[in-house]
């Protein structure tokens, strides 16, 4: 008998992930804890703590400002909206559609109190940046000793 060797290496990860995703989608409707409502997705977020403010950056390429809502409620920053495919898009003509579309929703717990009246949100080049000044925070002041 010929020497048959089985090479054990790392499996083809993208292929394995694709199979797992297809399996999950096939069974998701059968369980009460299935996936969230169709089209609901969560954009990626970075949160930075700068001296006097928190800064939240959210990747939302292809959005327009009027299709997003940003609010602060009970120590949480809530970002939601809808992203649609370009006009004239035909799914039957596409080979791959990996970018999430439809409703998105993201809730970020704020680690400190913020001055809600001074929050500024800016959308530029696919990035939503929300600056949240910290509330009640005062800069250090040198005190003269007499």
How would you portray this structure in words?
There is one protein chain. This protein is mainly beta and 146 residues long. It has a domain of 88 residues: Sandwich (Immunoglobulin-like). Helix content is 11%, strand content 32%. The chain contains 1 helix and 7 strands. The strands form 2 sheets. The chain has a 4-stranded antiparallel sheet, with no helix packed on it. A 3-stranded antiparallel sheet has the order 3-4-5, with no helix packed on it. It is elongated.
Q: Helix/strand-derived class?
A: mainly beta
Q: How is the largest sheet built, in terms of strand order?
A: 1-2-7-6
Can you write the helix and strand succession as a string?
A: HEEEEEEE
**What integer is the average pLDDT?**
78
Backbone shape: elongated
- Beta-strand portion reads 25-35%
Biggest sheet descriptor? 4 strands, antiparallel
Q: Kindly provide the name of the CATH class of the domain at 38-87 and 96-133.
A: Mainly Beta
**CATH architectural name of the domain at 38-87 and 96-133:** Sandwich
Please outline the helices and strands:
Layout: H1 13-28, E1 45-50, E2 53-59, E3 68-73, E4 76-83, E5 102-109, E6 120-124, E7 127-133
Give a brief description.
This protein has one helix spanning 13-28; strands spanning 45-50, 53-59, 68-73, 76-83, 102-109, 120-124, 127-133. It is mainly beta.
Keywords:
elongated, 146 residues, 1 helix, mainly beta, three-stranded antiparallel sheet, 32% strand, Immunoglobulin-like
